[in-house]
Amino acid sequence: MAKKVAAFGEVMMRLETPGLRLLSQTDTLQVSYSGSGVNVLSALSRFGHTAFPVTTLPDNPIGDAAEANLRKLGLSSDYIRKDGLYLGMYFLESGFGARASRVTYSNRPQSSFNTAAEDAYSFAETAKAVDAVHFCGISLAMNDTVRRQALAFAEAVKAAGKIVIFDCNYRPALWGADGYALARPWFEKMLHFADIVCMNENDAIHILGLPTSSIERVDQLLELIPAVANHYGIATIAGTHRAIESDGRHSLLGYLYTGGDFHFSDLLTFSVYDRIGAGDAYASGIIHGQLSDFAPEQTVRFASAASMLAHTIAGDTPFSSEAQIFRAMMEGIGDIER
């Protein structure tokens, strides 16, 4: 059954150099609009859910363009505010071979979302109108006002008896030198509200400070994720392990911990066209499976296939339909569809 899902977070303008060029080599940039919440909501909209960004866009033609592009992605503008002057931007130089991709942020601290007044949103009203709300650790990295807004919204969602979804998405460059210490209290507060969480053992070790005697990543996962679920009362935790092969392809193993049991996807190995947003595609698959009452094994396989397909599509935003993801689960990488 289709659900109403909201996401609290910043909408950003992505400015990408064409043809794998460096910024210093190009006089042309390709424009699109994204953000973790936008990416998750866009995928959920394609799966049949109704999607609502809860955000603030600049009250000018740039904000109008962003809103128009969100509508093209199937998102509702019911909870979009217009205020301020700036939209956060990031410049993407796609890597190749030994040269890694590079992201450079601009105007982010001054964006309309990150400078919105603390009482700008009607969180209680929105919480009553939707079934679930997605929050991202990237928003928690912005400033104290945004952090307090996110927690107030999560508290309202919980009070309304709706589902709180939290994707840790820890970004070292956004939190700074003492990032783990700064992030920990905010992440802990959000985890106490959360029903569905995207994280892995590295988040448990470095952000939450949990000790482990295990050496291998899978052993650490098996030890720490149940401890996190039990301590914070989280019903479902999911995430991935990624490896980069010697030929440049990526391997992805998805996991889902729910009902006291672990469920793993098959190990998927594939070529990468555009990696950014693939984690959001995985999160959208987990959310869709949970909201649609998929069996846990089907949910984790669906999420992993969604992430794999997102690696093959240009841009941050997932564009695969539910049918295309199910086909990839059954057939893997196939021939031309005719």
What does this protein look like?
With 338 residues, this protein is an alpha/beta fold. The protein has 12 helices and 14 strands.
Record the SSE blueprint.
Layout: E1 4-8, E2 12-16, E3 30-34, H1 36-46, E4 50-57, H2 61-72, E5 80-82, E6 89-93, E7 102-106, H3 123-129, E8 132-136, H4 137-140, H5 144-159, E9 163-167, H6 172-175, H7 179-193, E10 196-198, H8 201-207, H9 217-232, E11 236-244, E12 250-258, E13 261-264, E14 268-270, H10 278-291, H11 296-310, H12 322-331
Parallel strand pairs: 1-4, 1-8, 2-6, 4-5, 8-9, 9-10, 10-11
Antiparallel strand pairs: 2-3, 6-7, 11-12, 12-13, 12-14
Helix pairs in contact: 1-10, 3-5, 5-7, 8-9, 10-11, 11-12
Entry keywords:
338 residues, alpha/beta, ten-stranded mixed β-sheet, four-stranded mixed β-sheet, 12 helices
Enumerate how many helices there are, as a single number.
12
Helix content: 25-40%
Strand content: 15-25%
User: How many strand segments?
Assistant: 14
Residue stretches low in confidence (pLDDT < 50, at least 5 long) are none
Largest sheet: 10 strands, mixed
Overall mean confidence score, pLDDT? 95
The value of Rg in angstroms is 19 Å
Cα shape: globular
User: What is the H/E string?
Assistant: EEEHEHEEEHEHHEHHEHHEEEEHHH
* Cα end-to-end separation: 30 Å
Helix/strand structural class: alpha/beta
